[in-house]
Design goal:
There is one protein chain. The chain is an alpha/beta fold and 411 residues long. It is 36% helix and 22% strand. It has 12 helices and 18 strands. It is globular. 50% of the residues are buried.
């Protein structure tokens, strides 16, 4: 079977690696010219996502991934704060967790290596069509095209492939604008290092201002103690932070700023919302070149609304179908599971349309569950545009616990 994958992100590369191992003729096209030039800083892979990945890549790739990852079981218990830095509660016990955090660049680079020569960079897809024989055709911005037995859209939130299938967008703005950056733990004061600890934390303040601070240490907290295999771009304890505000005319201008100007504007915004100075140190001491802005998009949380098309020789996976805000830390893992499920169906003996139909049924169920978990936190943030931040932050504890139960139920 000749498979063309549109999009070389996490899900697309995972599918390509698995298809290549299974003997399919697969080609991945991505508009990027460098796999390391990718947005985002770290992603979480739970046990189910890791299990799916083991079915797609060689054991050596998995070993290198684990050696480059930070184990959640080795960090402090997560915490919830208010905007003054006062403790409101704790997250679930992680001591038995099999989940890992990994740099997005590290994971994408490893998956690109697994895809090998099947990955073609610098190829922007402009459209999708079906030829006179009913075979899907992928058209490129340079005027060329290719046909395939199966086309899979792994091209993210604004997917060309999914838009063709659905005859319109498959996701919409979720109402939140986000910002992220990296701050070495050693760059903070001793007092703030002690407050944040070796954990991830979350706080929501007045008028929907929220701050997530993730902890990543793939050296001291390596999931696999094999430093000779590590390819992590993070080489020491680091806080990966994410700032969030309800999207409005008051925040639109922030998306046009960069570097020091963006960092300064973010700090000013939090101060206007009365956040304590020490809670903002992780932003104030970040490298301004690492600060980036992004928009949260989300698909429908109703499984029945996903894949609103008839099963055929064109399908999609990951954010192209179930665009998921990062508020549950499950989007990339879900895309990997999509890839493994699709390949398992293709390796069966049934007709391709039947195989895709079964795959898309699994896709809808997973997408609905992951989106429901992610949108609970989004709605809490939006609700604090008019309510007290401390109330919403305290309410996050059961939300995180529910997401944890969802992960465990999917094992």
């Amino acid at each position: 079977m000749r498979v063309v994958v549109v999009g070389g992100g996490i899900g697309g590369l995972a599918l390509a690696a698995g298809a290549r191992r299974s003997g399919h003729e697969v080609t991945v096209f991505d508009r990027d010219t460098d796999v390391a030039a990718t947005g985002g800083y770290h992603i979480t892979l739970d046990e189910r996502a890791q299990s799916a990945l083991r079915r797609l890549v060689a054991p050596e790739i998995m070993r290198r991934l684990l050696a480059s990852s930070s184990a959640l079981r080795l960090r402090d218990r997560d915490m919830f704060w208010d905007y003054r830095g006062r403790v409101l509660g704790h997250g679930p016990d992680l001591s038995g967790s099999a989940s890992i955090d990994v740099d997005r660049i590290t994971l994408r680079t490893l998956l690109a290596e697994a895809a090998g020569e099947d990955l073609h960079l610098g190829r922007a897809v402009s459209g999708i069509a079906v030829d006179e024989h009913g075979m899907p055709r992928v058209m490129f911005a340079d005027g060329t095209s290719v046909t395939a037995d199966l086309v899979v859209g792994a091209d993210g939130t604004h997917s060309v492939v999914a838009r063709y299938l659905a005859a319109g967008p498959t996701s919409h703005p979720a109402g939140i604008i986000g910002f992220s950056g990296r701050t070495p733990r050693a760059g903070l004061t001793a007092a703030e290092r002690h407050r944040l600890g070796t954990r991830s934390s979350m706080a929501i303040g007045p008028r929907g201002a929220a701050l997530y601070v993730g902890f990543l240490d793939p050296v001291g907290n390596a999931a696999l103690d094999a430093p000779e295999l590590s390819t992590s771009i993070t080489t020491g304890p680091t806080y990966i932070w994410g700032a969030m505000f309800p999207e409005s005319a008051r925040t639109d201008f922030l998306r046009d700023l960069h570097g020091t100007a963006l960092r300064t504007a973010l700090l000013d915004r939090f101060r206007e919302h009365r956040w304590a100075g020490h809670t903002l140190e992780v932003i104030a001491r970040t490298d301004p070149g690492s600060v980036a802005a992004f928009r949260f998009n989300a698909a429908s949380t109703r499984a029945a609304d996903l894949t609103p098309w008839a099963a055929g020789r064109i399908t999609a996976l990951g954010d192209a179908v179930h665009a998921t805000p990062p508020t549950a830390g499950m989007g990339a893992g879900a895309a990997i599971q999509d890839a493994a499920d699709l390949l398992a169906q293709l390796d069966g003996t049934t007709a391709i349309t039947d195989a895709i139909g079964r795959y898309e049924a699994q896709l809808r169920q997973r997408g609905g569950e992951v989106l429901t978990a992610a949108m609970k936190t989004v709605r809490l943030i939006l609700a604090t545009d008019t309510t007290l931040g401390a109330v919403a932050t305290a309410a996050l504890s059961p939300v995180v616990a529910a997401a944890t139960r969802l992960r465990r139920s999917q094992k």
